[in-house]
Amino acid sequence: MRVPFFLILFTLTFAVFAQDYDFGKVSKEELQENYNPLDSAASATYLYKYRRTYFNYVKNQGFQLTTEVHDRIKIYNKEGFDYATKAIWLYKSKSGREKLNSLKAYTYNLVDDKIEDVKLKKDGIFETEKSIYYDETKFTMPDIKEGSIVEYQYEITSPFYTNIDEFEFQHDIPVKKIYAEFESPEYFNFKANTKGFLNVIPRIENKRGKITFTEKVRSTSKGFNGIGNSTSTSFETSEVEYTKQVNTYSLENVPALKEEPYVNNIDNYKSSVNYELSFVHFPNSQIDYYSTTWESVVKAIYESPDFGSELDKNGYFENEIDALIGSISDPLQRTSLIFDFVKSRVKWNGYYSKYTNDGVKKAYKDQVGNVAEINLMLTSMLRYAGLRAYPVLVSTRANGVPLFPTREGYNYVVSYVKIDDTEILLDATNKYSTPNVLPYRTLNWQGRVIAEQGGSQLIDLYPKEISNNSISMMVSLDESGTIEGGYRSLKTNHNALAYRESFNEADKDDFLEKLENKYGGLEISDFKVVNAMDISKPVMETYKFVKESQADVIGGKLYFSPMFFLKSNENPFKLETREFPVDFGYPSSINYKIIINLPDGYKVESLPAPGGFMLPDNLGLFKYNISGNDKMIQLSVESEIYQSIIAPQYYDVLKTYFKQLIEKQNEQIVLTKA
Amino acid sequence: MYFTFFMTLKNILAFFLLFTSTYIFSQENIYSSLTIPNNLKQGANAVVRLNEVEITIKAVNEMVVSEKLIITVLNKEGNDNVNAYVFYDNNVKIKDLQVLVFDAFGKEIKKIKKNDFKDASAVDGGTLYSDSRVKYLEYTPISYPYTMELTSETVTNNTAFIPSFRPVSEYYVSIENANYKINYPETLNIRNKEKNIGEVNIEKDISLGKMFYKIVNLESFKPEEYSPSILDLAPCVLFASKQFSLEGVYAEVENWDEFGKWMYNDLIKDTYDLPETTVSMIKDLVKDEINDIDKARKVYKYVQDKVRYISVQVGIGGWKPFNASYVDEVSYGDCKALTNYTMSLLKAVDVESNYTVIFAGNSQRSLEKDFTAMQGNHVILSIPNGDDTLWLECTSQKLPFGFIGDFTDDRDALVITPEGGKIQRTKKYKTEENKQQVKGNYTVSNDGSIMVRANIKSEGIQYDEKYWLESETSRDLDLHYKKRWKYINNIDIENINIDNNKSSIEFVEDINFEASNYVKKAGDRMLLTVNALNRNTNIPDRYRNRKYPLKIKRGFIHDDEIEIILPVGYEIESLPKGVVIKNKFGSYKTEIIPKEENKLIYKREFVVNDGEYPKEDYDKFRDFYKEVLKQDNAKIALIKNQ
Question: What domain of life (chain A) (predicted)?
């Protein structure tokens, strides 16, 4: 239903009654509210979310960052009780630590039509050292009931003024009112990066600020005779005036962000603003650039000692690479030799990073390294072998899409080689990864290729080549509905990578039992996997099988789906509507060639009609072909999704595509006695 | 001259090396993956080559635990079996911690010292606070197999928990040699209990002040569906001291009776300190109730509305409940605090109830009843009710009064009374109590779609499986029903109505939906799977070689009666026959009764009883399910009227 515009306005104004957002000024109306009128499914709602982050000058220490937080949360029902517990993480490093000050919190309840408040006491606050980088302060509110309101307020001071925590405007519960403010002195230039569906535009104004320096001045005067001596101390104050920029955000009725299946990373769609420091310029000193453009981001990363200079080292491997490629001149062969060498030489320790940690030399020696150590080492070896190789900055799926030029936008690095017109991406952290078949975690929009001079260009990380799964099956059906036959599948690219990861790392008997049970107790014999380790070829799985009850015997006729246990039964898309793109990670194709030998004395009474259908704009297709005589039936089924990502406007057609696919795969063949 | 001296020394060394080579060989042997017996490699991701545990109780408040573990990891999965971490807290200090890593041939390749371990808080996400911390190792293997030797020593002032001799507690791990030694002063009385050691190679040596156990050549355990848990299968020996200390609280207990008295007097009794106002409020609340159970029902409801569960592990090793007055003030607490709070409210209205220690979880793990020691991981409340007992789960704000579900049902628990402790079995949900009834109808259209009305009533454990649906959002409910009937492709749900009747403990769901193309078409025929609303889609997993007995923890009854209205223009070509199956696992019965024109009644009853059977019965049990699945897919063939 379309709601006329004026009606929306009306509802909005209606919903906003006079509110007092001062700490402690909780109203009866707020306490009486049984559900959120704009989202009745919400178990809790932020009635008010306040955050102010600003710079202040501390004598002898310089600038530091202060963040004030004030939240007021309405809890509607028991599912919302989790919001009565709050955890605050405080970062620390060798150079300083964040501190939590002036925490106060209350629970409000309506008892006999009177507002009662209960204060959070000290014994309800717990401090824990989580790791060497983080401390945690956690508290849970007393006297929580359905309908309670929780309100807390605190302040965090931080010496890490180059890192401003993201201002998040959207949460897993709705927010009724947000006020956020970020204030920075003219010496610090920040860039605001906004993402998400909401229209968030700050109001920007300039204000005057002032720092008062007080300095002690000591003067000593000597007496004429050189004996007496008097010292006097005086204070001199000086003032520095400056401009500060104040950005304020004021939002109302922000909807909750809800999870959906096949979403790459929900954070990509969350409304937020991130302040990235671009430069620092104090009076009478040089400008210190951080980053604002992709060029400066790339430059900053490249010039970091844990990136660029690590890439330039090659003394540690020269002898072994010389021996490895000495007699080979073909650049493709050189590439694959070096790629395999790095994969077998250095094992990934599970850490993502675009910077080296212990350095490439130590990683080479210890045979263990993080992502940067492994892939920067690979890149420099390839360069040493005369190839045009470059590191590529990547943001993993879990890290989200790098929408803005920030150094934190990238958290991973892979390698890129250009041989004539062939472009190859390599990641040596996974032993089953092959050229242009990167691990799933890296398949996320675009990476940034860094050239020797520090320039950069974008490269698509979603694979262009389709990952195939080709299945052929020979089946003999008997008149009781039991089938037996042979199965073979050939998997390429990402399908092969995923298969190798699950097959090679598991107990073989266990793998086989799981496979049998996946198909409801299929009985498998002569199970064989070819090229499990030879990753240059597709991986092939073959076996013989027997399975009962694969046809319905009704009134002397046999009814069955020609795909038997291989048919799809469940639509992966069950939600009625969808807001975010469907992300499959890579384009894929699955096709079946099935030959069915009919039981003696039966003939075909009816076959499903051949047919097919397509997704619009060349996103995918489905084809179904069937033919047969009295001895056997031949079936060919193909389904292909050509794109890694499908936009939400195609959701309905995609859902219908899977619905039709399942219906077609379930269509029945009817056999009658000849 | 110096030169000669060195030569001599070198010769002496060579001589020594030669002389001791057999010794070195047998030592190195254990670090090499080549020497693992074949039967231990089978079905194993890791092999424990040697596990030596030595417990030295120096005094009632001082226990030293030293452990050496040599484990060969065969593949990536096996990394998880190394368990290279040590927990500590205010009462457990780590004295020594070291790791050596060896390659496949037993050559040492790395040494890791205590300071190279990472240190972190051991609080999981669900816990608000605990002082438990952990030192753990992050190690990336260069290749497989590799062997790791872990040496650790901890000292604690708690002797209430003496580590058990449990050589294996994880699947896919086999044991070459595991031994355990405990030394203790003769002034202490140490008891032990051996479990599941019938079929293993075990050696023991018991004398005054010393006990020794050794197990060799133990093949790996593999998980199997419908089997007892590994705890009930794997060998272990439990130990406990009659005299022990728990964070400075001394105890001397011989049997459950004394144990109960000690817990009651030293940990629980002094926590009943409800403020007067609360006492009079609760008295007033139940003043109209005459019998104790009705009073308890009101008190339980009051607690459910007032408090919530928050895990906080502080004070006496997390064993002493918070004071009732504290819970009264903050309205939250862990299982001990909330149980104790409920108990003190009941006490205020003169209803007897008892603090009960139990192992919680679906697996029905019992307390070892013939072995008095600190056990359990959860606390519930029991209320004597004539010959019967009512059990209350005080951490839940949603469960009906007296309903404990599969979390604490049918297992031995320790009931603590002021007179002492006793072991009691919690409520068992019998087959006939776990009932689900489906009543409804569906109409098949000419185009193959169906319109369905279903009414589903669930009781007992079937209630437990569904009651949480009450608080789901409509979006999630829509998804839930589409998943429950996942074998129906195009469900479009029109209406969902849920009634959670807490007093009768019944959960009633009314759902209407439509599904296009439900019927499979083949030429002029329609194939209609009769059972649309309660199809069994699962067959128990098949094992080439079943090892463990068959165990069905809880029985159930499914009872369905559905009216089917057939499409106009079609007639029945064939109808599936009714089926009756009866065996020791349960029964299955279907019937299709034609009514007036175009109308059928489908009846189905599926019963599975709880019970334990030898492993040979597993295949028959599986066949039963296979047959049920087949019959649940029985189809009516309809043909177009000519």
Answer: Bacteria
Phi-psi region of A420 (alpha: psi -120 to 50; beta: other; left: phi over 0): left
Half-sphere exposure of A11 (CA within 13 A, CB side): 8
Asked if A662 lies within 8 A of B489 by C-beta distance, the reply is yes
Alpha carbons within 13 A on the beta-carbon side of B294: 7
- Rounded Cα distance between A23 and A72, Å, is 9
Q: What's the CATH number for A467-673? A: 2.60.120.1130
* d(C-alpha A382, C-alpha B177), whole Å: 48
pLDDT in tens, A240-291: 888 999 999 999 999 998 877 777 777 788 889 988 888 888 888 888 877 6
> Which of the residues A83, A106, A112, A126 would you substitute to probe the B interface, choosing the one with the greatest number of B C-beta atoms within 10 Å?
A126
Q: Are B119 and A131 a contacting pair at CB < 8 A?
A: yes
Q: For residues A440-474, b (16+ Cβ closer than 10 Å) or e, as one string? A: bbbbbbbbbbbeeeeebeebebbbeebbbbbbbbb
Question: Would you say the C-alpha torsion B368, B370, B371, B376 has a positive or negative sign?
Answer: positive
This complex has an ipTM of: 0.78
Closest CA to B162 of B91, B241, B92: B241
Tens digits of residue pLDDT in B371-398: 999 898 899 999 999 999 999 999 999 9
Note whether A295-460 and A467-673 share their fold.
Answer: no
Place of tokens 């791990």: B173
Contact A346, A364 (CB under 8 A): yes
What is the C-alpha to C-alpha distance for residues B448 and B442, in angstroms, rounded to an integer? 12
Contacts of B469 (CB under 8 A, 6+ apart): B477, B480, B498, B507, B509
- Taking the C-alpha atoms of residue A230 and residue A220, their distance in angstroms, rounded to an integer, is 6
What length does chain A have?
674
CATH of domain A295-460: 3.10.620.30
Q: Which domains does chain B have, with CATH numbers?
A: 31-246 (2.60.40.3140), 261-425 (3.10.620), 431-640 (2.60.120.1130)
User: Whole-model pTM?
Assistant: 0.84
Supply A199's token pair. Answer: 């229209």
Domain boundaries, chain A: 21-211+241-280, 295-460, 467-673
Contact A85 B128 (CB under 8 A): yes
What is the tens place of the pLDDT at every residue in B569-595? Answer: 999 999 999 999 999 999 999 999 999
A21-211+241-280: in CATH 2.60.40.3140: yes
To probe the interface with B, which of A86, A504, A510, A573 has the most B CB atoms within 10 Å? A510
Q: How many CB atoms lie within 10 A of CB A285?
A: 9
In A, which residues are within 8 Å of B517 by CB distance? Answer: 663
Residue found under tokens 């030169």: B3
- Of A59-68, A167-176, A232-241, B4-13, least confident by mean pLDDT is B4-13
CA angle A239, A242, A247 (to 5 degrees): 140
